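Morning F.,

Quick status update on the modeling queue. The single chain you submitted on Monday has been processed. Sequence for confirmation:
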Amino acid sequence: MTGQSRSRRQTLALGGAVTIALAASRISPANALTALPEGDAYAPWRLWDDASLRGAPLALVAAGILAANPHDTQPWLFQIRGETIDVLADLSRNLGAMDAYVREMHLGLGCAIENMAVAAGPNGYDAEVEPVAGSLASLAERRAPVVAATVRLKSRAPSPPDALYRAIALRHTNRYAYEPGRALPADWLAEARQTAADRGARLFVFEAGDDRRAFDAAVVEATQAIIADKSMIADSDRWFRSSRAEIEAHRDGPTLEAAGLSFFALTYARLFPVSAETSHAAWLTNTRDVQLASAPLTGLIAVKDRYDREATIAAGRVWQRLHLSATARGLALQPLNQPIEMIDRERQTGQGGAWARRIARLTGDDWQATFAFRAGASLKNAPPSPRRKLADVVLG
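Structure tokens below.
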């Protein structure tokens, strides 16, 4: 990235130039914050439940591609064989040093599989998921697609769409400030814990006290460590799409609109070049002073072995289901996976296990955290992210 580039975690410190930008662009705060992105790259959010797809295996894939995934890399391919769907990890879309063991990639595949499972009933299917066994630590392939799971379908009478199904197209990562004084519903937390347990995982949540302070400090310091690691931050930045032309060309990656920026910061970022250093510093500031400071609750999803392929896919399914159920209740969620990314990076580079030990103090030695997040309620709705066409992810 050059000095004129923008990072994926874009945000800005603003000065008098903002006033000039507003006058020149004639953009108002109201339409800048409420208008949804336009363009064909966002069409899958409108077409996923189209009547032309309903009742066919392709309808499940259309739901799957709307799932949460790391850096909006959309690292999936699908092979439909009658009433069987193979879900493949598209390893050419890996995040390099940011995801050294493609663990986050497999979490994203789990998210897609959960969307497919939720969409199965309303489309007239029962779905049985068979993940591929093995260790991510020994997965040598990094460029070619490999099967991660098989979804076997059995026809039945369609069930009425439920709240989770309707939430598929409404679920978006919300990076805005949350309402710090608004506690999450106790029944949602109980449901979230049970969801994790049902998948062989465990949910740890932090609202206040020493563990919450330790969690927040770990996220902030991991963010600093990623910024200081030239390989990690470069592999992150290369996915950022800063213009409409880039979004339409790639149909993936983080965008300015989804970065949780204020109206003024978003306007400035659209109109002026920003150095990578400024963007990285602002990502750190936004993480510490907005996202963590405003979150009433943070948490970890943990499994017995964070490099077990089946467990990782299961954890991704947990995250997606939590996010769908939160969306149905009007709640907001955002990943904060920097500490887990540093665990992977430390292991990859042979620098020891300081980060793993640090996070283990929050989970105990019997569980290994594989996903970190914050949850709450936000006054601002998050926009969708770009999505690739079905034709680009379904193998012929």
